[in-house]
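hey so i finally got around to running the thing on that chain from the lab meeting. sorry it took forever, my laptop kept dying and i had to restart like 3 times. anyway pasting the input first so we r on the same page abt which one it is
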Amino acid sequence: EPPPAAAAQVAAQCADAELDSAVTFAARSPSDVYAHAAVATLVQLAVAANSDVHWKPLNYQVLMATRSGSGRARCLALEVVGALVGRLREEYLVLLPETLPFLAELLEDPEVRVEGRAQSVLQQLEGVAGESLAQYLKA
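ok and heres what got predicted. didnt touch it at all, straight out
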């Protein structure tokens, strides 16, 4: 059992207004609510972990979801990556080497919405990195 101070800290972070707004924003259908709540929860988990030692396995599992047969699952996984980049900013760059091969695959996804979201995440990453990442996406 975690010490009470740690539990209180995680609870406070999970009560973050961003989590509430993500769930409210997603109120279009029950599946959207759950999907956006899951994205927000995974981001909060990464924030609470506050260490790349914990971010790496989380990021890897999210990246593995981008290989799902479901376009929706691939899009949601990209939503998580984009949200992690948005929240962790420069701290996410330690995860870049493992992320780029997955992103390269997704930029060629047969589903337009997946490819478009992958392009958006790439632009986010380039903004954080301060440089073009195109050279790292080539096979």
